[in-house]
Amino acid sequence: MRVRGIRLAGFCVLAGALSLSACKPTYQTKLESPALTTAPESKEIRLDFDQIHSDVVDALNDDGYDFVKDLDLSGDNEKKEFLIRIEIMENVSEEALDLFLSELMKAVGNAARTQDFRYSEPDNENFGGVFEKYGVRIVIRQSGSADREIEVKAGESFPFSPSN
What we know:
Layout: H1 2-21, H2 49-60, E1 68-76, E2 81-88, H3 94-115, H4 130-133, E3 135-142, E4 148-152
Parallel strand pairs: 2-3
Antiparallel strand pairs: 1-2, 3-4
């Protein structure tokens, strides 16, 4: 009988401890959706051009631009400029090249926006907000012909359309 009383008392103590542990406070916010935090406009965020190069190559890798032999993207944060070197095959039409350049610049705009969300994303009207601050120099090399160079200063429009 005495053992039964000790077991009952032990069971009561255990039940009490478990019920008290269930009453501890929870720490949850009442925020229903997360807020996006962006850096202040005055804070300079330097672009990582190596990462942008990797992101752009990944984005364009499976898009059927087999006429592109080589693509190199670099840049300079002090000069606020992208430098893009492209080597293409012979006999590529202007339409195909313009389509590639349009997709290339959208990919650059998206990659830059990944690093700094203050830039607007590319759409059918422009290639993204990064080109309001950064200029672009594109050098196109085609076997058997002279290099073609396209230079667009920050804030200027491109000679090809983003709606391609």
